[in-house]
Amino acid sequence: MSLLDNLCAFFEKQRISRAHETCWIPEIWNHIGYREIIEYKDRQILINPFAYSLACLQHIQAQPAADTQQALNLDQATIYTALVRYTAAWEYAGDGAWQSGTFLRMIWLLPLLRSLGVNVLYLLPVTRNSQLNRKGALGSPYAVQDYFSLDPALHDPLLDDWHAGSLDQELAALIAACHRLGIRVVHDLIPRVTAMNNALVHEHPDWIYWIHKEALPGFAPPRVPELGAFAVSYTHLTLPTTSRV
Known about the structure:
Blueprint: H1 3-17, E1 23-26, E2 39-41, E3 44-47, H2 49-61, E4 79-82, H3 84-87, H4 103-115, E5 120-123, E6 127-129, E7 144-150, H5 167-180, E8 184-187, H6 199-203, E9 209-211, E10 242-244
Parallel strand pairs: 4-5, 5-8
Antiparallel strand pairs: 1-3, 2-3, 6-7, 9-10
Protein backbone atom coordinates (compact mmCIF):
# COMPACT_ATOMS: atom_id res chain seq x y z
CA MET A 1 0.00 0.00 0.00
CA SER A 2 1.40 3.39 -0.98
CA LEU A 3 1.72 6.22 1.51
CA LEU A 4 -1.18 8.12 -0.07
CA ASP A 5 -3.32 4.97 -0.09
CA ASN A 6 -2.55 4.47 3.60
CA LEU A 7 -3.55 8.05 4.33
CA CYS A 8 -6.78 7.61 2.37
CA ALA A 9 -7.64 4.50 4.40
CA PHE A 10 -7.09 6.50 7.59
CA PHE A 11 -9.35 9.34 6.47
CA GLU A 12 -12.01 6.89 5.30
CA LYS A 13 -12.36 5.61 8.87
CA GLN A 14 -12.06 9.02 10.51
CA ARG A 15 -14.69 10.71 8.34
CA ILE A 16 -17.25 8.25 9.75
CA SER A 17 -16.15 8.13 13.39
CA ARG A 18 -15.55 11.89 13.54
CA ALA A 19 -18.31 13.06 11.23
CA HIS A 20 -19.32 15.76 13.73
CA GLU A 21 -16.04 17.67 13.41
CA THR A 22 -15.90 20.71 11.14
CA CYS A 23 -13.60 23.47 9.99
CA TRP A 24 -13.74 26.50 7.70
CA ILE A 25 -11.61 26.92 4.59
CA PRO A 26 -11.59 29.54 1.81
CA GLU A 27 -14.06 28.62 -0.90
CA ILE A 28 -11.38 29.16 -3.55
CA TRP A 29 -9.36 26.27 -2.12
CA ASN A 30 -12.12 23.88 -3.16
CA HIS A 31 -10.75 23.25 -6.62
CA ILE A 32 -11.70 19.57 -6.39
CA GLY A 33 -15.44 20.18 -6.66
CA TYR A 34 -16.16 18.95 -3.14
CA ARG A 35 -19.94 19.00 -2.60
CA GLU A 36 -20.50 17.88 0.99
CA ILE A 37 -20.44 21.50 2.13
CA ILE A 38 -22.20 22.14 5.43
CA GLU A 39 -22.42 25.93 5.24
CA TYR A 40 -21.30 28.93 3.17
CA LYS A 41 -20.18 32.20 4.75
CA ASP A 42 -18.17 35.15 3.43
CA ARG A 43 -16.49 33.16 0.65
CA GLN A 44 -15.69 30.37 3.08
CA ILE A 45 -17.09 26.88 3.30
CA LEU A 46 -17.66 24.71 6.36
CA ILE A 47 -16.50 21.14 5.84
CA ASN A 48 -15.70 17.94 7.66
CA PRO A 49 -11.87 18.02 7.47
CA PHE A 50 -11.52 14.23 7.31
CA ALA A 51 -14.00 13.85 4.45
CA TYR A 52 -12.41 16.79 2.64
CA SER A 53 -8.90 15.37 3.09
CA LEU A 54 -10.07 12.04 1.66
CA ALA A 55 -11.75 13.73 -1.31
CA CYS A 56 -8.66 15.84 -1.95
CA LEU A 57 -6.31 12.85 -1.92
CA GLN A 58 -8.66 10.83 -4.14
CA HIS A 59 -8.81 13.74 -6.58
CA ILE A 60 -5.01 13.94 -6.67
CA GLN A 61 -4.59 10.20 -7.14
CA ALA A 62 -7.15 10.19 -9.96
CA GLN A 63 -4.90 12.43 -12.04
CA PRO A 64 -2.71 10.81 -14.71
CA ALA A 65 0.68 9.90 -13.24
CA ALA A 66 3.23 12.58 -14.09
CA ASP A 67 6.90 12.04 -14.88
CA THR A 68 8.84 14.21 -12.45
CA GLN A 69 12.15 12.58 -13.43
CA GLN A 70 12.15 14.28 -16.80
CA ALA A 71 14.37 17.35 -17.10
CA LEU A 72 12.62 20.65 -16.40
CA ASN A 73 13.65 23.99 -17.88
CA LEU A 74 13.48 26.28 -14.86
CA ASP A 75 13.36 29.34 -17.14
CA GLN A 76 9.95 28.09 -18.25
CA ALA A 77 8.79 26.75 -14.88
CA THR A 78 5.99 28.24 -12.76
CA ILE A 79 7.40 28.30 -9.25
CA TYR A 80 5.29 28.87 -6.14
CA THR A 81 7.13 29.76 -2.94
CA ALA A 82 5.46 28.64 0.28
CA LEU A 83 6.15 29.15 3.95
CA VAL A 84 3.90 26.26 4.99
CA ARG A 85 2.89 27.56 8.39
CA TYR A 86 1.86 30.87 6.78
CA THR A 87 0.70 29.87 3.29
CA ALA A 88 -1.73 27.23 4.58
CA ALA A 89 -2.82 29.21 7.66
CA TRP A 90 -6.49 30.09 8.08
CA GLU A 91 -9.20 30.78 10.66
CA TYR A 92 -10.12 27.11 10.59
CA ALA A 93 -12.25 27.29 13.73
CA GLY A 94 -14.19 30.28 12.40
CA ASP A 95 -13.61 32.21 15.61
CA GLY A 96 -11.23 34.83 14.22
CA ALA A 97 -8.12 33.07 15.54
CA TRP A 98 -5.60 32.08 12.89
CA GLN A 99 -4.17 28.57 12.96
CA SER A 100 -0.81 27.82 11.39
CA GLY A 101 -0.56 25.78 8.25
CA THR A 102 0.65 22.18 8.18
CA PHE A 103 1.91 19.70 5.60
CA LEU A 104 -1.64 18.29 5.32
CA ARG A 105 -3.24 21.71 4.79
CA MET A 106 -0.63 22.37 2.13
CA ILE A 107 -1.89 19.27 0.31
CA TRP A 108 -5.34 20.87 0.31
CA LEU A 109 -3.88 23.75 -1.72
CA LEU A 110 -2.21 21.62 -4.40
CA PRO A 111 -5.19 21.24 -6.82
CA LEU A 112 -5.62 25.02 -6.88
CA LEU A 113 -1.89 25.60 -7.41
CA ARG A 114 -1.78 23.02 -10.22
CA SER A 115 -4.74 24.70 -11.94
CA LEU A 116 -2.66 27.89 -11.99
CA GLY A 117 0.11 26.07 -13.84
CA VAL A 118 2.45 25.65 -10.87
CA ASN A 119 4.96 22.89 -11.52
CA VAL A 120 7.55 23.67 -8.83
CA LEU A 121 6.74 24.06 -5.14
CA TYR A 122 9.57 25.95 -3.44
CA LEU A 123 9.35 25.29 0.30
CA LEU A 124 10.94 27.76 2.66
CA PRO A 125 12.66 25.92 5.54
CA VAL A 126 10.49 23.25 7.17
CA THR A 127 13.20 22.28 9.66
CA ARG A 128 12.83 22.91 13.40
CA ASN A 129 12.27 26.63 13.95
CA SER A 130 13.70 28.46 16.94
CA GLN A 131 11.50 30.25 19.46
CA LEU A 132 14.39 32.39 20.75
CA ASN A 133 14.13 36.12 19.93
CA ARG A 134 11.19 35.28 17.68
CA LYS A 135 10.24 37.91 15.12
CA GLY A 136 6.48 38.35 15.15
CA ALA A 137 3.96 35.54 15.49
CA LEU A 138 5.57 33.27 12.92
CA GLY A 139 9.23 34.14 13.33
CA SER A 140 11.83 34.00 10.59
CA PRO A 141 11.87 30.81 8.50
CA TYR A 142 15.66 31.05 8.57
CA ALA A 143 15.93 30.96 12.37
CA VAL A 144 16.66 27.24 12.19
CA GLN A 145 17.32 25.49 15.48
CA ASP A 146 18.00 22.06 14.00
CA TYR A 147 18.80 21.32 10.34
CA PHE A 148 18.24 17.60 10.83
CA SER A 149 14.67 17.48 12.15
CA LEU A 150 11.34 18.85 10.95
CA ASP A 151 9.44 21.60 12.71
CA PRO A 152 6.89 19.94 15.07
CA ALA A 153 4.53 22.87 14.42
CA LEU A 154 3.95 21.48 10.92
CA HIS A 155 2.27 18.35 12.31
CA ASP A 156 -1.47 18.37 11.75
CA PRO A 157 -3.67 17.49 14.76
CA LEU A 158 -6.04 15.72 12.37
CA LEU A 159 -3.32 13.07 12.06
CA ASP A 160 -2.81 12.49 15.80
CA ASP A 161 -4.40 9.05 15.46
CA TRP A 162 -2.56 8.11 12.26
CA HIS A 163 -0.45 5.48 13.98
CA ALA A 164 1.15 4.37 10.74
CA GLY A 165 2.45 7.87 10.15
CA SER A 166 4.96 10.34 11.55
CA LEU A 167 5.91 13.94 10.87
CA ASP A 168 8.45 12.72 8.32
CA GLN A 169 5.69 10.82 6.56
CA GLU A 170 3.41 13.85 6.60
CA LEU A 171 6.07 15.69 4.59
CA ALA A 172 6.55 12.59 2.42
CA ALA A 173 2.79 12.58 1.71
CA LEU A 174 2.97 16.22 0.59
CA ILE A 175 5.86 15.41 -1.73
CA ALA A 176 4.09 12.31 -3.09
CA ALA A 177 0.94 14.35 -3.77
CA CYS A 178 3.02 16.99 -5.54
CA HIS A 179 4.74 14.41 -7.71
CA ARG A 180 1.40 12.85 -8.64
CA LEU A 181 0.37 16.27 -9.97
CA GLY A 182 3.65 16.81 -11.80
CA ILE A 183 4.91 19.35 -9.27
CA ARG A 184 8.56 19.20 -8.30
CA VAL A 185 9.46 20.08 -4.71
CA VAL A 186 12.44 22.23 -3.75
CA HIS A 187 13.45 22.77 -0.13
CA ASP A 188 15.23 25.98 0.80
CA LEU A 189 18.29 25.11 2.92
CA ILE A 190 20.53 28.03 3.87
CA PRO A 191 23.08 26.98 6.53
CA ARG A 192 24.71 30.39 6.09
CA VAL A 193 22.12 31.73 8.54
CA THR A 194 21.12 30.02 11.78
CA ALA A 195 19.28 30.62 15.03
CA MET A 196 21.31 31.71 18.05
CA ASN A 197 20.39 28.50 19.87
CA ASN A 198 21.15 26.15 17.00
CA ALA A 199 23.00 23.06 18.16
CA LEU A 200 25.82 23.93 15.78
CA VAL A 201 26.62 27.01 17.88
CA HIS A 202 27.60 24.71 20.76
CA GLU A 203 28.92 21.75 18.82
CA HIS A 204 31.01 23.73 16.32
CA PRO A 205 31.60 27.24 17.69
CA ASP A 206 34.45 27.66 15.20
CA TRP A 207 31.87 27.55 12.39
CA ILE A 208 30.09 30.63 13.71
CA TYR A 209 30.92 34.30 13.57
CA TRP A 210 28.95 36.93 15.40
CA ILE A 211 27.76 40.38 14.41
CA HIS A 212 27.20 42.48 17.51
CA LYS A 213 24.52 45.14 17.26
CA GLU A 214 27.08 47.82 18.15
CA ALA A 215 28.97 46.94 14.97
CA LEU A 216 25.91 46.72 12.76
CA PRO A 217 25.94 50.31 11.40
CA GLY A 218 27.83 50.21 8.14
CA PHE A 219 27.88 46.41 8.01
CA ALA A 220 27.14 45.08 4.53
CA PRO A 221 27.76 41.96 2.45
CA PRO A 222 30.44 42.08 -0.27
CA ARG A 223 29.44 44.12 -3.28
CA VAL A 224 28.79 42.05 -6.40
CA PRO A 225 28.10 44.44 -9.31
CA GLU A 226 26.60 41.65 -11.41
CA LEU A 227 23.70 41.32 -8.94
CA GLY A 228 22.37 44.73 -9.89
CA ALA A 229 18.90 45.28 -8.41
CA PHE A 230 19.15 41.99 -6.50
CA ALA A 231 22.03 43.22 -4.34
CA VAL A 232 21.03 43.40 -0.66
CA SER A 233 22.15 45.97 1.86
CA TYR A 234 21.87 45.33 5.60
CA THR A 235 22.88 48.83 6.66
CA HIS A 236 19.28 49.80 7.47
CA LEU A 237 18.72 46.95 9.93
CA THR A 238 18.63 47.29 13.70
CA LEU A 239 18.99 43.77 14.99
CA PRO A 240 20.00 42.15 18.28
CA THR A 241 23.19 40.19 18.33
CA THR A 242 22.85 37.52 15.67
CA SER A 243 24.92 34.77 14.16
CA ARG A 244 25.81 33.39 10.78
CA VAL A 245 27.44 30.16 9.73
